[in-house]
Predict the 3D structure of the following.
Amino acid sequence: MTAEPDPQTCPPLPVTIVSGYLGAGKTTLVNAILAGDHGLRIAVLVNDFGKVAVDEALILNRSGDVVALSNGCMCCQVGGDLYDAIDRILRMRKRFDHLLIETSGVADPAKVAQIAIAEPDLEPACTAVLVDAANFLDVVNDPRLNDTLLRQVRAADRILLTKTGAVASALDELSITLAKAGGTAPIAVIEKGDREAWHLLEARERHARLPTPGLSRFHALPYESWSWTGAEKVHLGELIAFANDPGLKIYRLKGRVRLKDGRSILIHKVGAVITVEAASEILDKSEVVAIGVKPDFDPTHAEAAWAHAVTLREPAPDPTSAP
Amino acid sequence: MADIVVYSASKIITMDPTSPEATHVAVRDGRILAVGAADCAVPWGDFARDDRYRDAILMPGFVEGHAHMMTGAMWTYAYCGHQDRIDPDGRKWEGLADIAGVMAGLKRALAELPPGKPLIAWGFDPIFLPTERLNRHHLDEVSREVPVVVMHSNFHLMTANSAALAVVGYDRNSNAEGVARFEDGEPNGELREMAAMFPLMRRLGVDFRGLARTEFAMRGFAKSAMRVGVTTSTDLLTDLPEDDIATLTALTGRDDFQLRIVPALNGITQPAEGIARRVAELRKRSTDKLRLGAVKLMADGSIQGYTGRLKWPGYVTGHPNGIWNTPPDRLEEQILHLHREGVQMHIHVNGDEASEAALDALEEAQARYPRFDHRHTLQHCQMADDAQFRRMAALGVCVNLFANHIWYFGDQHYESTMGPDRAMRLDACGSALRYGVPLAIHSDSPVTPLGPLHVAWCAVNRLTPSGRVLGENQRISVAAALHAITLGAAFTLKLDSEIGSIETGKKADFAVLGQDPLAVPPVGLKDIPVLGTIVGGQHFPV
């Protein structure tokens, strides 16, 4: 006798989050994913207004805010409550292999990811934050939006740059801005209408720092970043030695650092020039960001060098103070 | 016999500047036929005389410009707040002063609970309890078998017992940020923010928003309104699906339904053209006691939840700035187009950066599509400074201030959100009046309890639980506060030609009071007994 499959035994539904400000290309990416040759039954929740502009050829039927696609996918526009919509999807758990959430332009994707972390029937897969390369630097300078955008960047497991064609020259500044914002995620460029974009669904958060087969096809930017935040006090000599270490290939470094001697300083390195100045306030923690060109600059090497040279190793005892 | 009834009262406060006071009011066909002395109806022919309100004070029925239908849904669950509350059916729920009291109250509620149901309680606020923080061990003493969930009054936190945590499987290995822990790493029962609460709520079938759409909630809301003298209330934010419109139309069409309802459509679910079409269609379906066509937009979150958008220097505690509910660019786009289409908007703005964004958009809208008497209303608008009030006046914008916050959250704003100076201008009713901005004041029930006299008391006295007077120069007179809860609120709903004052031709909507609010000491305003309401000539005694 075969029993009905128990819904309790369904594995958790993987959740991929696509976030980013208005115009970053979220809907374009979602459509590219839906149109891909993935064989997955994807439920899409669009937490924003506007018709879901799915390729008409794919549409099986429309009913209110729900669009059913011929490949088993479903797209639902969520005007009000995202939780209600997730609850409805989970009631139809067996109909889907994946949940894709397109957040609103001002959402904090970290909060959306918390839903997938807390809910046992969901499994957080990956948070991709789209950054409009043509406009991000302008928008991020709007004081009303600065913190919202930086919050998104910090929440990303993947940063995907869109609209890069016209602004290749600005990518350097953009990647530095993103790294300074605390975005530790790998940065990649995604082209409009990429038929392979659905490979994003294969990304898993725990692999965030590792290349995945699906993402290797995206054109990776040549920059990598490394950052550190901590309450430990740092020895200035060690800090400068770290920044200058020729083996690490740090192109740019910026930090606000508490020193062992009690001072708080700002440090900048651009190319070969290092400047150190007093901070305008007493810091209660230190932050350091370093950027370099791949593959010469390797964040894991920087991490190891930092842990070894600056935070863990006590400075050599001063022989003159020996008893 | 006569279809005209003349009611006598100890005093009638009309809110009509031509004749501010009267002793008699004549009613025919649910409308006010005449106001004045005992002979006011004589020119109209035969009339009957009804003296049941002989010793009472009659005022225009109060108008709640910002509340939610969810008010009526809450009573599905057990109340466990620190203040006494009266439920829609008149049952008094005693305030619970400490954790032992909360536990005893929950045990009483458990005894009344049908078997197999979880115990859900609401209204709990740890701020008011001097003892240790409620945790799962306290609730385990209420029951080890039945899931027990205590929703905090801010709706952002809940405390669950071990049986409830087990329903989700929350344990020391849970990764969710919102699962709070004891020092030993075990969950302490507190679940913070919706992401962590949602798995438990969906498993226990707790759905406050869904409940708000039931007939039970709508009837409860109307009964609660009647108990505090409200005859017209908004339900400020709903998607208004057809089912709800049908239920509301049927209910409000009954003579025994105690409330006129003004639901506000969520105005951000589709582009402005679509909203404008829906509004035009909804307006045609308005009935006597159901007024459709209002629209609400949401700019930011709440100040006490640190999700309100603040201008520099931000939160006094250094919390990061709050969240936009709608991107400011999109808010502007929506405001421009809805304004062009002639749709009146109620715009939720708590922090001063949000109110500024709304004013910027409204200024642009007025420059492009000038329009008189649009009555767009900034809702809550708790941190606006005088410069913003001057802009509201210049742009013809109304304001509905959340005066109840002064009592319920004023100390918190003073100490841990805005700091003393900005907290003094919290819900600056005085500034609104100084610059001639049309003013309403509200409860945002169920965020704070429904009760216009309490809201008015806040605006007049600006007292906080710690005994502060929070901004003495923003206090307003009793007369101005009474205007704000009647004609002022009616004006923001574009209903001031029909309700809000006792004038010939208007709806026969009255609040029946036990004392004269213009005669009691201002500090006693909130304690004036409400004896009932009259809605369209129908009597609803408490």
Observations:
- DSSP finds eight helices and 15 strands in chain A.
